[in-house]
Amino acid sequence: MKISLIEFSLENFKSFKDKATFSMSSRKNDRHTFVSNGENLLKTTMIYGPNASGKTSIMEAIGFMIHFVVRSANIPDKPGKRNFPFNSFLGSEEGKKKPSYFELVFSLTESDYDEVYRYDFEFDFLADKVISEKLTKVTSAKTDKVLFSRVGSDIKLGENFKDAKSLIGATRPNTLFLTVAAQFNNDFADKLVKALSSFIVISAAGQRFSPDRIAKEMEKNKNLKTKILNYLKVADFCIVDSGTKEVPVEGIEVKKEDGEFSFKQTAGKQLVPYFGHPVFNDKNEKVGVFPLDMLEESFGTQSFISIMAPIIESLETGRPVFIDEFDNSLHPLLVKFIVDLFESPEVNKNNGQLIVTTHDTSLLGYQNDFIKDQFWFTEKDEQGASKLFSLAEFKMRHDTEYARKYLEGRFGALPFIESVKK
Questions:
Q1: 356 near 322, Cβ under 8 Å?
Q2: How far apart are CA 55 and CA 324, in angstroms?
Q3: Do the beta carbons of residue 106 and residue 125 sit within 8 Å?
Q4: DSSP label at 204?
Q5: H/E/C letters for each residue in 244-293?
Q6: pTM of the full structure
Q7: CA–CA separation, 315 vs 339, rounded Å?
Q8: Domain-by-domain residue ranges, the chain?
């Protein structure tokens, strides 16, 4: 099944007090979009805003929602205890009492029939219980068809879940019914949860693919190894070879027995990637290659390599990928290069989607390469609550320089910094 993001909404989560909706839908069909179930969906979007304005909260919200859909049935039932993270908006007294709300609108291509449908899944919850949950399908006649709905313990089932009636009683207050249905092998729920779990969410710069994970992926998928190397060559990193090798690693094993701790030194091996750089003689002739482990490369090179693994995965499979602090340690031209991969119909044949947060305003300067629908902004109000809005909400001339207007404060979403006395 191929999934594409249409909209995502959140409310009362971290820095967001009121409901905010992010959309990948575009008003027109052009080179920046692809058509899914009759809807024009963007291939790339960029979210801008000051530090601590809510950009990361959006990425964490989508990551939490997917994680909760996949794993809520595994949460132990412990009355009176905090069973899963409840990160409500803390800047108001009502934030702790109100439920957090999430809604995901997406299109799904069923490979067996090559049919595309639009679905809307939403739920809200408190620290120890799900308040409501609903899954809706938009039919070809553009009418809403409720597949199941839930308010507290009252669950009503539609035709796709008729065989799941016995699961109503098995659905605990702190668990999503969709997760339970998938866990108990309801075919439709299982397909849906697997499709949602295919979202790639990299919620912070420090959580990009680690060297050992990249090495394992390179061993498992030789095509990935070849493509990473090719992109390193195209992007002028002066790298001509790549591979994996085992290196010794040491650690400490901690055990607790009868209230006493014991420590034992351990030794093992870990698979790591390495990259080959050319060696030249005094005639500027290439005479060899010297290897560097990934962690010996510059931080910018490490950042590019670690980000390319999920990028390639998205381009090859069409999985949506979300990256927080996208431009971290990357040159603006490298940032543009990666975005262009998704914009290219020759490279992005499976219509993968790239959603990023960034401070790189150079992308706003390519006004002939992007449309207003692709740019979003976050900012906080006087109470510290985040707001989300699109550049498409502003009326301006076709030749407006977006980057200059943004830095002038015409769109908001800028930090208010006092001038330094000179």
A1: yes
A2: 8
A3: no
A4: S
A5: EEEEEEEEEEEEEECCEEEEEEEEEEEEEEEEEEEEECCCCCEEEEEEEE
A6: 0.91
A7: 11
A8: 1-199+319-422, 210-301
Q: Is 406 helix (H, G, I), strand (E, B) or coil?
A: helix
Structure confidence by residue, pLDDT tens digits, 306-350: 999 999 999 999 999 999 999 988 999 999 999 999 999 999 999
High-pLDDT (> 90) share of the chain, %: 68
For domain 1-199+319-422, which CATH number applies: 2.115.10, 1.10.1610, 1.10.530, 3.40.50? 3.40.50
Separation between Cα atoms, residue 133 and residue 155, nearest integer Å: 9
Phi, psi of 409, rounded to the nearest 5 degrees: 90, 10
- 8-state DSSP, 105: E
Q: What pairs with residue 104 in β-bridges?
A: 8, 121
Query: Which residues have a Cβ under 8 Å from the Cβ of 306 and sit 6 or more positions away?
Result: 208, 209, 210, 211, 214
Confidence bin at 113 (pLDDT 50/70/90): low
Beta carbons of 378 and 55 less than 8 angstroms apart = yes
pLDDT tens profile 382-421: 999 999 999 999 998 877 899 999 998 989 998 888 888 8
Name the 3-class secondary structure at 338.
helix
d(CA 389, CA 99): 23
* Residue 413: half-sphere exposure toward Cβ, Cα within 13 Å: 24
